[in-house]
Structures are given as structure tokens and as C-alpha cells.
Amino acid sequence: MTTVLPAPAPRTAPPSAARIAVRRVGLELKLFFRERQQVVFSFAYPVIMLVIFAAVLGGDERPGDVPFTQYFLAGIAATGIMLTSFQALGTAIATERENGQLERLQVLGTPPVAYFAGKAGQVLVTTAAQLALLLPLARYGYDVPMPADLDHWLTFAWVAVLGALAGTVLGVAVSALPGSAASVTTGISAFAIVLQFFSGVFFGFTELPSWMQQAAAIFPLKWLTQGMRSAFLPEEAAAFEVAGGWEHGRTALVLAAWVIIGAVVCVRTFRWRRSEG
């Protein structure tokens, strides 16, 4: 008599990269909020800087009779986006690589694109939370006008999203710099501070030397800051920009170009494991 063997159970298909990415967003948010020092710095830095500079220079004006606090809000909002994307991500990934977390993800078969998407989702959520904390303080604590209408809010939104995505891919890219996580963190932090001064965050951009303006124009923060000014400042203030206008087209082009450049660099340089030596 022939024995009939039961049919083998069908194999469960592995989850898609998109499904893994969605799950990674939630996990990345949990990991982010577990790092208390990083959370406090990311959320408190823009707020503290706004309080300090408003107390010291709140009575000053920038070109076009724009109150200093209104001008500064655009710059510190842009800086906050850079902190939660470029700086926080670059240091976090370098640390994850050094302590072996990335290697474990590789062993589990995590697609790199799902890992990147998880980080991008985490950055977008934390950026929104950070701005939700900063803007009400500026509005109700210092009477800073918010974007005047829907068009200005939409400008604020696309500038923030493009800036956050550019910071995300560049943060992933710089995390691959050689050296320990501590040395990578030091380098990223120092570069971020210098870039803030070059990009017109603390001073009027037109007040900076021309060579500093030209150097800043290479990097995304200058365009992110200028885009934020176009959302928060009155239209008359555009005449006092270097180009005599807000340059929305060029701002979008530069930020989008950095997203593409950063993505290409990520694909070519990202590694799960720390390089020997």
C-alpha cells in the first residue's frame, strides 16, 4: 500500500522592502527617543537659541526693517531641520555601525533601501515635531508673524521636506567617514556649526563677506535658510536678498540636486560593518 505523504507547507514569502521600511520608521522613532541626550539637544537647541538671541538682539532690525526675531526664526528653523537630519543621523549611524547594530541588520537581510527609508521617515516625523514646538514659541512668545497665507505655508512645507531629505541622505553619506564614531561625531558637529555662520543663520546673509556667501551657496543650509525666509518674511524683504528675490526655482533645484547627489553617495559608500583599521 502506497503511503501518501502530506504536501509540504507553502513557504511564506519574505516581507517586501516597502513593508520593512514602514516598520523601520516606527522602530527608528523608538530608538531616537531612547537617546535622551540627542532628543534634548535636537528639540532644545533651536528653542534655546531663539530665546537667547531674542533677549540680546530682539530690538534690532535686519535689512528691510524686518525685526531681528522674525529674521532669526527662519534661520533657526532651518538649523533645526539640519540638526534632526544631517547631524543627528550622521552621528547615530556611525554609532550603530561601531557597536554592531548595522551588522546584525545585514545578517537579518534588511535591504539597504528599507533602512534608508526608515531613517528618512524618522527624520520627517521628528522634524515636524521640532517645528511644532518652535513655531508656537515664536508666535506667542515673541509675536513673530507666521506665513501670511496658504502659498507661504506651502512654500514652508516644500522647503522643509526637501531640506530634511537632503539632510537625511547627506547624514547617511557622512556617517561612512573613516574613524571612530566619536571622531565622526566631532567632525560633523564642527562642520554644522561653521555652516550655520556661513549660511546667514545668526547674521544677515548680505552682511557676510562675498567669499563666505559664495562658499555657503554650495551647501544646502544656505538655500534652506533662504527658503524659510521667503515663507516667514514679507515679500518686500526679497529685494534685500543677494539676487534681489527669493529664487524659489533655484532653491528647489539646489536642494533636489543635493538629495540626488546624497543618494548616489549613499549607494556607493554605505557599509554595514566598520572598516578594519
From TrEMBL:
It is a multi-pass membrane protein. Residues 37-273 form the ABC transmembrane type-2 domain. InterPro entries: ABC2_TM, ABC2_TM_bact-type, ABC_2_transport, Nod_factor_ABC_transporter. The chain crosses the membrane at residues 39-59, 71-93, 113-135, 155-177, 184-205, 252-270. GO terms for molecular function: ABC-type transporter activity. One of its GO terms (biological process) is response to antibiotic. It holds the Pfam family ABC2_membrane_3. The keyword Acyltransferase does not apply. Keywords: Antibiotic resistance, Membrane, Transmembrane, Transmembrane helix. GO terms for cellular component: ATP-binding cassette (ABC) transporter complex. Its main location: membrane. It is found in: Membrane. This is ABC-2 type transport system permease protein. The lineage of its organism: Bacteria, Bacillati, Actinomycetota, Actinomycetes, Geodermatophilales.
